[in-house]
Structure formats: C-alpha cells, structure tokens
Design a protein that fits this description.
Elements (H helix, E strand, L loop, with lengths): L2 E6 L3 H16 L3 E2 L8 E6 L4 H17 L4 E6 H5 L1 H5 L4 E6 L6 H6 L18 E2 L8 E3 L24 E3 L1 E2 L10 H5 L3 E2 L2 H13 L4 E5 L16 H11 L4 E4 L9 H8 L7 E3 L7 H6 L6 H14 L4 E8 L6 H13 L4 E6 L17 H25 L4 E11 L2 E6 L4 E5 L7 E9 L2 E6 L6 H7 L7
Helix pairs in contact: 7-8, 9-11, 12-13
Length: 469
C-alpha cells in the first residue's frame, strides 16, 4: 500500500483543499504516513500570497528531498498554479499540479507517466511540460485559472482531521486588489450550491463534528454566481434551520459585507461563534485607495462599532499589510493610531512583497526592507497588546468552550466561541463542550469547568495556582 504525507501552507481554504486531497488519496487506497520522512508520496499544498510563502515552500521541498530522497514530491496549490516551471526545476520534484488540476491529483499520481508524444483523449490530464533537464521527468499539470469551476470538498473524516473541520463553500475572487495574486491563481468567484453545503454539514455531523468552520476566499460573495442567486445570510439561516450543528464559525469576511443585518444575524443565535475576521490592510485612506480597496478607514471603524454594540464580547480580528509601495511614515503612523483606537482583538500582520502579475508589482516608491521590518515589528507589538487587553476584558466571563487535542499536566486546551484559546483545568476528551469561567489573575490565564464552580471560593482560599499558558 502506497503511503502519503501532506505539508500544508497558507489559509483555511488551503487547509480545506488539503483535507479533500487526503480523503481522495485514502479512497484510492493510499495510507497516511506519520511524517514526510516515511512517505512514498509527499504532497506540498502551497501558498503564494507573499514571497516569504514561496521561499517557505522551496525550503520545504529541499528539506524533504534531503531527508527522504526516495520520496516522490508532489507540489500543488497556489504557487504551483502561478509558477509551475520554477517548482519543477527543484531537485526531487516529480509532479507540479496547479489548482486547475488539483481535483485530479490522486488520479494523476496513480497513473503511469504518459507519453508526451501520444494523442491523449483526456486533454485536461495531459502534462503541459516534461522538463528533460530535471534529474527525472517532471510532469506539470496546469490550466488557466479562468477555467476553474470545481470546489474541492473533503469527505468527512473528523477523527483524523482537526477537531473543528473546515468546509470550503466558496473559492476564487472577482475583486482586483492591486497587491493580490489570488484571483490569478484561483480564478473567479464560485460557490457550492446550498443543498450541497447542507448535505456536507450533515455528513460532518454524522462523523462527529460539533463545530464547523465555513471558509472561502471571499465568503461574502457566496451565492452571487448561482442560479437561482443565493446569499451568504440565506445560507447561514438554512444551516441553522436544517441541521443540528452546535456551533458554526465563519472565516475571513470583507468589511463591506459586515452589514447591520449580518451582525444582527450573528447575534441572533448562540449557535454562531461571535467571531469576525475582517481584513483591514491599512488605516490610511490614500493607501487603501492605491490598494483598490473599496472602503475607507471610517467605514471599517463603523463596522467594528456595530459589532461591539450588538456583541460586546465578540472577537474581532484584522489583517494589515505594511510597506505597500508609497506608504509613507505618516501613512504608517495613521494606521497605528487607527488601530490603537479601534476595539479589535488581534492582528495578522503581513509585510508587503510584490507578486508577479499584480498592479502593485509595477509600482515605484518601494519601502526599504529594513523599514518594512521595523513597521511590521511595531504592528505585531500592537497586536500583542490588543490581544492581551481583549483577554483581560474577558475576566470573569462565562464561556462555552470546545476541547481540542492538546493536553499537558493537569490541563486541556480548548477554544471559546469568541476565539479565546485557553487551558481548562483537568484532562478532558477531545471535542467536548465545557462551560467555564475565564479568569485573568496576575497574567496567568485559567478556565474553571462549570462542575467545580461551586467550590470556587474554597479553591481561592486554598490558593490553588492557575494553569499558565
């Protein structure tokens, strides 16, 4: 029985793709190996959002080939879609399979190497190049991103996957932000039909899921490509009314899709996680304009205010890009001031790197790498302060948490609806709900299960120490 191992890079959408690939390989009789060192096929599902992501993938390929020279390395994902020949030139790579052919990955690696001179009936499965200069023949499968129609969906496999499985319901993007390569490597926006979404959620529930994360490249655009047209809010209502899902969590959603109606919908049900991740990118209006973002800082701030009014304890996360071409010291300072005043919970900070094929790659006025590094460091420090303040604000708040797989001496890791990862006293099975009280005492974080809350005063008198992160 052939074995495989998957290295995944990037966002929740790529995580969902990796799960689908793994499920398909298992269906074909492949067995999952514990590591890349022991696998016959090593699949790298890549990201290409930044130059650092590209470098990380190349480093991983070299390391895998060094540690397991007999492995057949399969490179797929966004980097494979953008620059297949670049990856095929790396020693040890056997297949480069772009997003356009990712659904056929298991078929491709299971088939004998095709004759490049033969007249193949299945043109979409024909490798587009055989690089004779490589140490061995490299097969490249890549079509145009515009032709992508399918959305990869994993078969339910909660036991072997994350405690909280990700269901990708949308892929691609119709926006053209000047810095972003994603529309070029994932194609136009496309959606999974509502009936299919409901069916997949029911299958995941049957497999034991209690929280499911809906993911997509542009979730707010869900359903606009369908006939009849659907909407993301309609889908959420269908999920609540037609399934028994205990908690629904949403991945990133654009700020202009976070309307008053949308916030009211999230607030209307305790079965929806009070968690919003809204990309900001910059707090400077001139930079937002240059990025071709379709809102300004005041619009974003109003969305945050609306969330806080309806859901005071909700987690609100933001993406920020620093060092965009033309970003001045004043622009950076404006972003810092904007974020300082905004009641958000955490930050994801990205250093700008030009992506081939994007408008921003051709812009002048580049910020020096050392200055980008300095600004990113300032933003990350601010993000840490924001997270600490958010956690401190939850002191004494009752939370319902789902236990995760990680445990230590006397504690179990868990996640709350408002995206607090914490340690609960005691050793608990994975995928269990616990009602806890969140405590912040002298920077030590602790959650007490509901069944011991009756003894809380006694515990405090005995000065039982908190479990530290």
């Amino acid at each position: 029985m052939a074995t495989f191992f998957i290295h995944n890079f990037g966002c929740r959408a790529t995580q969902a793709d990796a799960s689908a690939i793994a499920s398909d390989l298992k269906t074909r009789g492949y067995a999952a190996a514990e590591s890349g060192r022991a696998a016959e096929f090593v699949v790298l599902n890549t990201c290409t959002v930044t130059a650092a992501a590209d470098a990380q993938a190349r480093d991983a390929i070299r390391r895998i080939h060094r540690e397991n020279p007999g492995a057949r390395i399969v490179v797929t994902g966004c980097y494979a879609q953008r620059a297949p020949e670049e990856l095929a030139g790396l020693e040890g790579v056997s297949f480069v399979i772009g997003n356009s052919h990712q659904s056929a990955l298991s078929s491709i690696i299971s088939s004998p190497a095709p004759d490049p001179d033969a007249n193949h009936a299945r043109a979409d499965f024909v490798p587009l190049a055989h690089l004779a200069s490589s140490p061995h023949a490299v097969q490249i499968f890549r079509g145009e991103a515009a032709s992508m129609k399918e959305i990869l969906v994993a078969a339910p496999d909660v036991a072997d996957d994350r405690t909280r499985p990700t269901l990708k319901i949308q892929d691609g993007c119709n926006h053209r932000c000047s810095y972003c390569v994603i529309p070029l490597v994932r194609g136009r926006s496309r959606s999974l039909a509502p009936a299919r979404v409901i069916a997949e959620i029911r299958r995941l529930l049957d497999a034991g899921a209690r929280e499911i994360v809906l993911s997509g490249i542009d979730l707010g655009s869900y359903g606009r490509d369908l006939s009849p047209r659907a909407s993301f809010q309609q889908l959420i209502r269908q999920i609540l009314s037609q399934t028994s899902l205990e908690r629904l969590r949403l991945s990133s959603i654009e700020p202009m899709d976070v309307t008053q109606d949308f916030i009211d919908l999230i607030a209307s049900s305790d079965r929806i996680a009070a968690h919003f991740h809204m990309p900001l990118q910059s707090g400077s209006d001139p930079i937002l304009r240059a990025m071709h973002r379709w809102y300004r800082a005041a619009h974003y701030a109003r969305r945050v205010e609306l969330i806080r009014e309806r859901l005071p304890h909700a987690a609100i996360g933001a993406d920020v890009i620093t060092g965009f071409p033309g970003e001045t010291t004043e622009d950076h300072a404006a972003t810092m001031r904007f974020l300082e005043e905004l009641p958000i919970s955490y930050l994801h900070v990205f250093s700008f790197s030009p992506r081939p094929g994007t408008e921003a790659a051709a812009l002048g006025a580049h910020v020096s790498p050392s200055e980008i590094h300095r600004r990113a460091r300032e933003l990350r420090a601010l993000g840490q302060r924001k997270l600490a303040a958010f956690r401190a604000a939850q002191n004494g708040v009752a939370l319902r948490v789902l236990t995760l797989g990680r445990q230590g001496e006397g504690w179990t890791e868990a996640l709350s609806g408002n995206y607090l990862k914490l340690r609960v006293r005691g050793l608990w099975p994975r995928n269990e709900w616990l009602d806890v009280i969140f405590n912040d005492r002298d920077s030590a974080l602790e959650a007490m299960p509901a069944e011991v809350l009756a003894f809380q005063d006694d515990l405090r008198e005995r000065q039982i120490p908190a479990v530290r992160d």
